[in-house]
Write a structure and sequence with these properties.
By secondary structure, this protein is an alpha+beta fold. The protein is built from nine helices and nine strands.
Length: 297
């Protein structure tokens, strides 16, 4: 079995859901994914129930990009190694698309600008039915460390309004509370009564305060999804010393942020949730930040 190309990306958590205001943002997390393009099926079972990888290949061909020399589309196969929990709001589909596109670039020598890659990822996700908006902000977030504020209604090449290096990984622990399978897929109308919370998140991003944005976005999302348990669990985290907390994406995972030097608080939060909720899994990770701090006007 030959590896024709390999690409990587990472998961992310929501700072602003794109559906209510048309602006979206997410911050990179240390949840890596690697996708390999192969000349025969992998021995490891491929877990892609929504067919996202097939939609990536279709989007690639529709854009007239080349396949690896000597291969037809039906001769290509995928292998995935991912640390991103699926269907939890942690951008697993967007990250899969970006990593797969990077594998195709590696295999063919094609050149894609970042905005072209985001466009193909959005096309694939809409075709697979895993996104309300195309998850343009998610794709941007899974490509590079830090966070970006994206106008998802603008042309993709012009849509990044603001970007930031992110929060230092040595200062913060990110605790993910995984809550089992998603039970409710939100509709656009669900967000309309809760726009003030999302506006608060947008205002926080404009002043470069991502933790405040994460919390306000989580409050708006819990209300939009009618996730009473999620709102209660978020409030519990503040009682246990979390500095920020909220539902990410369309849920159901919760993202809690705690200072690295408060190990006792982290252990207390882990014990609190696992002791009170039978269906949760706790994952600890960090943000992915980068050097420099660029703003795009």
């Amino acid at each position: 079995m030959a590896v024709l190309g390999k690409g990587s990306a990472h998961g992310a958590c929501s700072l602003l859901h794109a559906a209510p205001l048309g602006y979206g943002s997410c911050m990179a997390l240390n949840l890596p994914i690697t996708v390999r393009l192969l000349d025969r099926p992998s021995k490891r079972e491929l877990n892609d129930p929504d067919g996202v990888l097939d939609r990536v290949l279709e989007a690639w061909q529709s854009a007239d990009h080349p396949l690896p020399e000597g291969y037809e589309a039906d001769e290509l196969h995928w292998g995935v190694n991912s640390k991103i929990p699926a269907k939890q709001g942690l951008k697993s589909s967007a990250a899969t698309c970006i990593a797969a596109l990077r594998a195709l670039v590696h295999a063919t020598g094609a050149h894609l600008e970042p905005h072209e890659m985001v466009h193909l990822a959005a096309t694939a996700q809409l075709a697979a039915g895993v996104s309300l908006t195309g998850s343009i902000d998610d794709a941007w977030g899974c490509m590079t460390p830090g966070w970006k504020l994206v106008d998802v209604q603008a042309p993709i090449a012009e849509g990044v309004l603001l970007e930031d290096q992110g929060l230092p990984s040595e200062e913060w622990i990110v605790v993910l509370v995984l809550r089992g399978p998603r039970e409710h897929q939100p509709q656009l109308a669900d967000f309309e009564p809760h726009l003030p919370a999302f506006q608060q998140a947008l205002d926080a991003l404009q002043t470069r305060n991502p933790l405040v944005a994460l919390t306000w976005n989580g409050r708006g999302s819990a209300a939009a999804f009618k996730d009473i348990e999620g709102r209660k669990m978020t409030n519990d985290s503040f009682m246990n010393s979390a500095r920020a907390a909220g539902i990410t994406g369309s849920g159901p995972a919760l993202v809690l942020v705690i200072p690295q030097n408060q190990r006792q608080a982290i252990d207390r939060i882990r014990s609190w949730y696992t002791g009170r909720y039978s269906n949760v899994e706790i994952v600890e990770t960090t943000f992915l930040s980068r050097e420099g701090d660029d703003e795009l006007e």
